[in-house]
Amino acid sequence: MANQRLEGSDLIILEGVSLRYQDRVILDGADWVVPGGEKVALVGPNGCGKTSLMRLIAGEESPHGGSVKVRGGRIGYLPQDIAQVGPGTVMEFLTARCGLSQAMEELKRLEGRMGEAGLDQGEALALAREHDRLHGLILRLEGYSFEARARRVLWGLGFREGDHERDCGRFSGGWKMRILLASILLSEPDVMLLDEPTNHLDTESIEWLEGYLRQFEGTMVAVSHDRRFINAVTSAVAEIRGGRVRTYRGSYEDYLAARRSEEEAARRRAREVQRIREDTMEFVQRFRCKASKASQVQSRLKQLERLEDVQLEASRREVRIRIPSCPRGPELVLEAKGLGVLYDRWILRDLDFELHRGDRVALVGYNGSGKSTLMRLMASQQVPTEGQVRLGQGVVTGFFSQDSSENLDYRGTVFKEARSGSDQLTDQEVKSVLGAFLFGPDHWDLPVEVLSGGEKSRLALAKILMSPVNLLLLDEPTNHLDEDTLEIFAEALDAYQGTLVVVSHHRDFLDRICNRVFEVRDGCLHQYVGNYSRFIERRREQERERERERERELGSSQAPQRREGSSLREERRREAEERNRLYRLRKAVEDRMAPVERAIEEAEGRKSQVESMLCDPEVLSDSALVQELMVELSGLSSSLEGLYARWEELAAELDSIG
């Protein structure tokens, strides 16, 4: 990375921070530090204050008490809510959001000012300093190769070739979040704050993002419920609990082990406190009427008063969801023949597949590949352009999509709407399911219309799970679930007896519940047996085989064919000739690069010299000399811009030779 980082010292510092919303306490005297260069996962149940803490660090909220300090200055914040991006094309937004387009425009305007006559000493010095600052910013953002770097980031996040030229307004909310994420990655902040960065990404883009963040040299705090993502990019886990923040070093599993040890220690202490109380009260009851024991009784009572209660946290993991029993249904649950969907292009084409009773399928693929379209086809929510989907006799379908919350009756209460999903569960069982999805007694009588978008989504999912269906189609059901709720949800699906198809970016979740994988790629469907991890292994094997095949084809087309009976010496001679050919090609490019590099070195040296002269009070006293130096500095900057661009062209040509 181009810019220097503040490492070793504490970069984020919270001291005695308090935050509350009406009567609800979010943070209560919280202290927390994040050292420079640290990557931390911020976890805790929904509603504990993770997003609020991120907003405090980003400066978008102020605490009611205490202080929040961030050293370093440059913060990149990705909120959880859908962001507004634009106006203009994606590339225009990225250059503006990173401050590059403004810096280049200002630099051009500044260089025009520097060429004007009649500048006094103070103006000249101020212009020189501002010029140096702007030039440094452009170099930090790798401004002269920014577009190529931005296109690589966009490709990693799942955008297609040419998307950088499309208007931001043409993209859906999820893709706009990707554009905002790209702008944060490209801006090279000192502190990166990512609130659920994987929510709008497919699994391939998540894996690319993990690789990018591992190389990020700054400080990062990420809110995530994706255990695999946390282990891939962070070195510590910070948990919000009881209004405080506590950090645990190591992986997510290390954090869970430490929490279990703490909970067991607390239970042991609670049992010990209870034993002491019982023994003390037994002693008091036995000897309270004996004068000779009066002082001992009083001493024991005082000890009892000083004994502190141990507060044990209620574990939501003890909650269980019972999905109603469903009709057994046929062996062949669903059959698709020649399935195709045409929008402005063929999204799906010639798909043939079957679902059998007990199948548990993970549907994966890049965003925009057609996963949600295929789910709607299976749920009979959309008519294909060609082909057909047939359900077996007696199949009852339950479909959860990202639009399912729109199908709730907003006029009813939370409990009434949940209750309408099933007549097989008792009221108490319905309330248990609601509790598992974070709807406590204070939510049951609330009108559905006052719920947030995430709460409506959880209610729609809970309602579908309470319906007696034997084909469950779930499109991104895990987006608004915290770790505990996700565990309860996975346990319910483990016990589910019907057929399941699920789209999710949560890879551990897919590993746990699925036994087949359908990958949508280039309009086709590729089927794999096994869980998600097995699918990744198979796909990598296929990619390696394709790479070996390309190398074989390249070798056969470039290298002379070995004649039957040709000697080893002849083969080595041909290899040497190929090495010499590549050397001559590289040497020719390097010869063209050498004068460019010398010119850059000379121009940078002279520019540094001129900038030093413009800081010399003796020089600044000579207005004519200042004017001359300012004009020279402007010319040097323009010359360097062209030299940098030429050097990058030659470097790319050299890389292509191999």
UniProtKB/TrEMBL annotation:
Biased composition annotated in UniProt, kind: Basic and acidic residues: 561-573
InterPro entries, alphabetized: AAA+_ATPase, ABC_tran_C, ABC_tran_Xtn, ABC_transporter-like_ATP-bd, ABC_transporter-like_CS, ABCF_ATPase, P-loop_NTPase, Val-tRNA_synth_C_sf
A molecular-function term among this protein's GO annotations: ATP hydrolysis activity
Domain ABC transporter: start-end pairs: 12-267, 321-548
Keywords: ATP-binding, Nucleotide-binding
Any one Pfam family match given in the protein's UniProt record, by short name: ABC_tran_Xtn
Record region (Disordered): 547-573
Name assigned to this protein: ABC transporter related protein
